[in-house]
Amino acid sequence: MGKIRVGLVFGGRSGEHEVSVRSAASIYRALDRDKYIVVLLGVDKVGQWHKLDQKWLPKGAEMKALPSGDKSLVVQEEKVDVFFPIVHGTFGEDGTLQGMFELLDAAYVGAGVLGSAVGMDKDVQKRLLVQAEIPVARYQVVKRGQKIKVDKFPVFVKPANMGSSVGISKCKSKRGLETAVTAALEFDTKVVVEEEVKGREIEISVLGNDDPVASVPGEVIAKNEFYDYEAKYIDENGAELVIPAKLSRDEVAECQRLAIKTFKVLECAGMARVDMFLTPTGKFVINEINTLPGFTNISMYPKLWGASGLPYSKLLGKLIELAIERKRVKDKLRRSYG
Fold first, then answer.
1. Which of 65, 114, 115, 291 has the fewest CB atoms within 10 Å, measured from its CB?
2. What is the per-residue burial (b if ≥16 Cβ within 10 Å, else e) of 31-58?
3. pLDDT one-digit tens code per residue, 99-125
4. Which residues on adjacent β-strands are paired with residue 270?
5. Is 198 annotated as a binding residue?
6. Is 308 in the active site?
7. Which candidate in 20, 23, 215, 299 is catalytic?
8. Annotated catalytic, 205?
9. Which one is catalytic: 164, 169, 205, 215?
10. Binding residue per annotation — 196?
């Protein structure tokens, strides 16, 4: 069998554009060239697609001064066996890009249209988790023009469809709440206002399709008010990552069980990182799921699998295998009746 052609899709129109480019740079350097031919497909900030060469992924760089062109899909012109989307945020992690891959009848890494959309929308995501009796923090949703009433502080104000801590604020009193909501509404049409959960911040990586497995848990000890954008992607000293987390055997088993259940309830596939809190009473509370988690050299998802015995390069290979496997299964479905 010849080498597999991997279309690495990165960039995008969301506020997580720069994170995506950093993730893509790490993936590009780690993919085994004995097994894969990498086709770089960059999406600039206005949504134009570009077939790029290696020079567009220097360490830590942002895509700048991309050549102008129309929005024709270069993916249709370039033979690709499997797409590896690492476009974080809206227009990439929310099901829109996955829908395009489905229309192209292509294999692709990560969750499908439904899992991606639900995983991205913190409001709908929490509704499904509550229905499945998975514990989440108390929250309310605010849309443009709506009044907000909060009786208990502190709260976190988050755009409903955004990741990487973009647009998130912590409010300790009513003062500043309206400003925080207005700021979050710059990124989305609805905002989640969520009560703070006191406890340790635990993260787990999940890998698989129908029979997913969970990594060892890790703990994030933020140096700031919370695990913000800088700590996640830029400042290696912005947070202490304890891997594996110092938990009892029963606690490890429980948080892994909850992570896998969350993954399945939200119809995910391929990969996801599940974030949760361990309260002082010993109860786990799910914070959120990330269906296309960060893949930079300091990102939690690959670090957790590394600590579980699956190094970065082999993790990428497994994700590609899962994408191809899922495509084979779907190809066996009947597409006509009669």
1. 65
2. beeeebebbbbbbbbeebbbebeeebbe
3. 999 999 999 999 999 999 999 999 999
4. 208
5. yes
6. no
7. 299
8. no
9. 164
10. yes
pLDDT value at residue 235? 55
Mean pLDDT of the chain: 89
299 in catalytic set: yes
* Homologous superfamily of domain range 139-195: ATP-grasp fold, A domain (3.30.1490.20)
Confidence band, pLDDT 50/70/90 cuts, at residue 19: confident
Question: Any idea which architecture 119-135+197-325 has in CATH?
Answer: 2-Layer Sandwich (3.30)
Q: How many CA atoms lie within 13 A of 258 on its CB side?
A: 28
Candidate list 14, 16, 18, 116, residue with the active-site label: 16
Domain ranges for the chain, please list them: 4-110, 119-135+197-325, 139-195
Pick the CATH number of 4-110 from 3.40.50.1000, 3.30.1330.30, 3.40.50.20, 3.80.10.10: 3.40.50.20
Cα–chain center distance at 238: 20
122 is known to lie in a ligand binding site: yes
109 is an annotated ligand-binding site residue: no
Q: What does R_g of the chain's alpha carbons equal in angstroms?
A: 20
Question: Residues 243, 249, 253, 259: what is their CA dihedral angle, to the nearest 10 degrees?
Answer: -30
pLDDT digits (tens, 9 = 90+) for 227-261: 555 555 455 566 899 999 999 999 999 999 999 99
Tell me the pLDDT tens digit for each residue of 51-101: 887 766 654 444 454 454 544 445 555 689 999 999 998 899 999 999 999
178 annotated to a ligand binding site = no
